[in-house]
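Input set for joint prediction.
Command: fold jointly, output tokens.
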Amino acid sequence: MEKLLQLLFSGVALGAVYALLALGFVIVFKATQVVNFAHAGLLMVGTYTVARVRTAGYPFPAAVLLGIAAAGLTALVVERLLVRPVAHRSVVAVAIMTIGVDVVLQTEVTRRLGIDIVSVGDPWQSATVELFGITVPQTRVAALVIAGVLLGGFFAWSRFTDWGIAMRASAEDHRTAELMGVRLGRVSATVWLIAAVLAVLAGVFLSAFPAPGVSPATSAAALRAFPAAILGGLDSTGGAVVGGLMIGVAEMLAQGYQEDLSFLGEGFSAVMPYLVMVAVLLVRPTGLFGAAEVTRV
Amino acid sequence: MSETGHARRIVLLAGLGTGLAAPFYLDVFWLQVGVFGFAAMVAASGLNLLVGDAGQVSLGHSFFLAVGAYGYAFYAAEPETGPGAPAGWGLPPLVAVALAVVTAGLAGLLFSPIAARLRGIYLGVASLGLVFVGEHILLNAKPVTGGSNGRDVPALTVLGFSFDDLPGKTLHVLGVPFTRMEKLWYLGLVTAALVALFYRNVASGRAGRALHAVRDGETAAATMGVPVTRFKGAAFLVSSMLAGLGGVLLALAFRHVVPETFGVLLAIEYLAMIVIGGVGSPGGTLAGALFVSSLPVVLQRYSEVLPLVSDSPTSGGVTAGVAARFCYGGAIVALLLVEPGGLAALGRRVKRRLVGAPERLPVLSEPTPAAHQDQAPDDMAAVTPSP
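tokens >
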């Protein structure tokens, strides 16, 4: 029972991190109709910067800020110079372009990493804390708290501020929003920036304990946020959070009970997110909360 | 026969002639580049049929290549090859090839309940899952796949003719010794040519028109009497069978297959091939496949003379594999910015300059920019001309 609780807690914490990533993916799609496969690449750029700045001896918050700056800048450059000029083309063409961007970004980061695994040097390290009778790593608690604050902050922002309303308006109907005076260019830049910020923070937690640090494995972990976004529904922010939590819990349970699942082979937990996604998509082809497609002839 | 028809014929014949003559002049390195290129052409044709003509995005192509490669190795290998060795059925190699292709097709059919339901990016990410599940199976189904060590691939023998080195019995043609690579070159050339012909005929025939109709608007296609689900399933089936065939060629060229080969990176490389070559273009596919598959090895070969590329990670500069990834990643981005039709469209442009032939009317095999508009249909677009 204690093990189950521990796993559930870890799963929810991991899921909250996936939710941050999936949310960034979803808001970019919602506001600009761009499927951003370079999301994992942005995460790697930011997290790598955090780790390198931190190992150079700067304090952790400064490192995180610099990492966010690096990823944010990259996101803006990609959005302005590459994605914007082709944004009027088909969804798939733009998606394939972001795959190209992702290949370049990831190649550069993994080239710089080489065979190193660089620690992000977070203040929690491998310390644990006793919580409601279960022992959990502090990083998981921090992830849960910070992700919760960020998610809450995002939803409040999108509901109550002018910028947030502009974003939701352009997601709803970008042509009408434009006619109403919403600056779509500014909205697009904003969501890319928010996505980059969320990605870096998620990346930091994906590389913190129990992961050894930033390595090419971090990007494989980041990739699991795609099934999270898809199973929640590509155009649903709430769905991204639910999807992230489901994926996180499923993965942790598969990992925790892997002795019982040994007939499924080693490392089964890494496949779990994709299986959950496929199972959901079989029943609901546009995800749990995704808008059903409207077909016009 | 129009002027462009003549030009096309000349290019084709020149290509085929070069292909036939090449083994007499090229060294084994270039033959190997060619053999891997032919394998990539076969599999990429399958992917382009699926993405370019049927409008179904797949990020899972490497999975079907793996099924073909491992399937052939499994069916053709002798059952008892020693303790700990992966099992095999010991079938005649040609039967094993056919079975491997059929198995890849079956894998595609198994996925079709998902493929038929999902559209656009949903399908893309779902098929990405296929790659991870595939890798997991390759690593864990040790009796068949040999786990992380991979397994050896038996050589192909057709009617007593072996596509392998036979010590002491080397075949000489016109004074040139024919080793494994020369033989595989011809095998690859013939297969790739047949597949290219097949792809061209499918795409420009009745089935192709039906697929294009499905791609451009499923409801409209259904109204015109196209069985949408059946055609989508068929596209997936044919695509995965061609991927399987490409996988068999790849396995024959490698002689030993390992799971790492068939990861996400390979799936992305195949997407890169068709985007660089030209989505929906049979000829462009061949060029794109050759370009992407040969990049790393060619860069490696010339690492000494190329600036920035080094032959080892320690001596500064980037390794050939890394440089290749930069190249094709950059090529995707650059082509989508300046010429979304890929090499095929660039070729057409050059030809227009040279021959001065008038631009042909847009044919169906060239997707219109709005062809893949499958997410968030925009009702305003119907009444206002898009910018």
